[in-house]
């Protein structure tokens, strides 16, 4: 009875793609010595293009705020760590790549000619400049790029900083879909419904799944002896964030995948024991963890592409290997896997 689509919804996917494009645009703009205004123009173009598919008004507003803040944090990190004129990073990228082709690094050849002779005259005779460069890159540059690759756009209404914009997108879209579902059932004159049953549901939803609910606010007993209460009993469980934003977080709350079906007398409603739920929830948690690892390695590969080929290839290979592990783990445990959640380069 688990028919819910657990792939990444199109609105969340658009936001995730916007974040990735912004990350690369800030990096390339900084390394190409573009002005902050020029970089910001590119950022706004990305945001407008990607958010065209975001139909939820609250989510779109949050995304604009969050993605701009994300771009600002990324840019400020470059300035703080490397300064306003990243000559050394341009120099290092060329030395490490040997033959860069990315348009962002066209000015690097000029820097090589201008700075290489000075560097060779420092008295470090007998030691290749490239080795010093690689050491500097490994010690000072690579850790910053890795940190930037791991940074995410955040939910602007979560002051704890734990909830990403991507997760907010999934929450908002699923919640809106639940509301539409309930209204459609009411419009069709349906009075009694039951919720779907998921073996791997959250602890929050466990007590509410598989029960019978009314859509007209009444309570009572069905003709086959099952008690029912208003659907609001299960859904109107409130949660307040540290920022003061209030969410309903009962059935159909944060990232809930349950759905409603019309109740008919004597229908068989599955029951999942707590033991089974805990076991299946562990599998679900592992799937989400593997998905995150794929995305992390993908973003790392993108950050090092055109700068450090070896690191790019290592991260890309790890993303591919982890994706294979994710697919195999899903198959081994009889679970569906979702390519939309683990897009590779």
What does it look like?
The chain is α+β, with helices and mostly antiparallel strands and 345 residues long. Helix content is 57%, strand content 6%. It has a five-stranded mixed β-sheet with strand order 3-4-2-1-7. A two-stranded antiparallel sheet has the order 5-6. Strand 5 and strand 6 form a beta hairpin. Helix 1 runs parallel beside helix 3, helix 4 packs across helix 5 and helix 10 runs antiparallel to helix 11. The N terminus is likely disordered.
Low-confidence stretches: 1-5, 94-109, 111-124
In whole angstroms, the N-to-C terminal distance is: 34 Å
Query: Secondary-structure element order, as H and E?
Result: HHHHHHHEHEEEHEEEHH
Indicate the mean pLDDT. Answer: 84
- Protein structure class: alpha+beta
What share of residues are in beta strands? Answer: 5-15%
Described by strand count, sense and barrel closure, the largest sheet is:
5 strands, mixed
Strand order, largest beta sheet: 3-4-2-1-7
Kindly state the percentage of residues in helix.
55-70%
Gyration radius, rounded: 26 Å
Q: Count of DSSP E strands? A: 7
